[in-house]
Amino acid sequence: MNCMAHIVKYILFIFNLIFVVCGILLIVLGSLMIKNVGDLSDFSDAIDVDLIPIVIIILGCIIFVIAFFGCCGAIRESVCCTSIYAIFMFIVFCLQVALVVWIFIKRTQFLNSMDNVVTTVWDKNDQANGYPMDALQISFKCCGLNGAVDYTSNGLEVPNSCCGTLSNACDASIYESMPGCRKEFRSFWASNTNIIRYAGIGVALVELLALTFTCCLISSIRKSRHNV
To answer: How far apart are CA 182 and CA 166, in angstroms?
Structure first.
């Protein structure tokens, strides 16, 4: 290969190292989202709030594996590996663009559905369902649907989880300052969907650039072998 082809090869290698890191970061982000959401999947009337984090983790794993093989294909100058890498990278690029577009279009509708999730959890916050608000209140450092007044105004005892624990008694000076869980839950998803859509645009642009370099490298490898 000529000098320019060698430069393209190493640029592609560096791009794929970046994608390996991006894949790891997506896996970490999805895992943290699942951890913070808590177990809300037991309610038939609530949507599966783990769906997007799981999709992010799967996407991160796919990007990690594809980028790893992309690094190997670029360094070894393998037309077969590099071509397979290009095909899968194109598929991932299309899926990622679809996810970003979906989030841009459906973001408001999705956030409204997250409000409904919290309302459903609040409506089913009883002993039969294991008091699911406890998990939500501890995870998001919130209290009640709109605040501790949701408990006190209805003559209910404010649970210890409004103070972030199940073991110690909850003091009024703490739970009265806690925000409502509906607001905190919506804010959590609003910030994370912003990260996903804007970071997704950036990563998609880098993927498109990497795909272009891959096609150039494949063409260069084929020409050099044809001339040998």
So the answer is: 20
Amino acid at 145: L
Say what the pTM is: 0.70
Backbone angles phi, psi at 208, to 5 degrees: -65, -40
Which residues touch 127 (CB under 8 Å, ≥6 apart)? none
Tokens of 101: 């577009």
Two tokens at 97?
């663009």
With a CB cutoff of 8 Å and minimum separation 6, the contacts of 30 are 53, 54, 55, 56, 57, 60
Give 50's pLDDT tier (boundaries 50, 70, 90). Answer: low
Residue from 26, 20, 53 nearest 189 by CA: 53
36 φ, ψ (degrees, to nearest 5): -75, -30
CA-based Rg of the chain, rounded to a whole angstrom?
A: 24
Q: How far apart are CA 5 and CA 170, in angstroms?
A: 66
In order, the DSSP letters of 64-78 are HHHHHHHHHHHHHT-
Select from 145, 34, 139, 12 the least CA-distant residue to 82.
Answer: 12
Task: Write the DSSP symbol of residue 44.
Answer: T
Q: Structure tokens of 123?
A: 């409506």
Question: For residue range 95-123, what is the model confidence (pLDDT) as tens digits?
Answer: 888 888 988 898 898 888 888 888 888 98
- Least confident piece of the model among 150-159, 176-185, 204-213: 204-213
Backbone angles phi, psi at 47, to 5 degrees: -70, 160
Tokens of 54: 């799981």
Locate 127 and state its tokens.
Answer: 């002993």
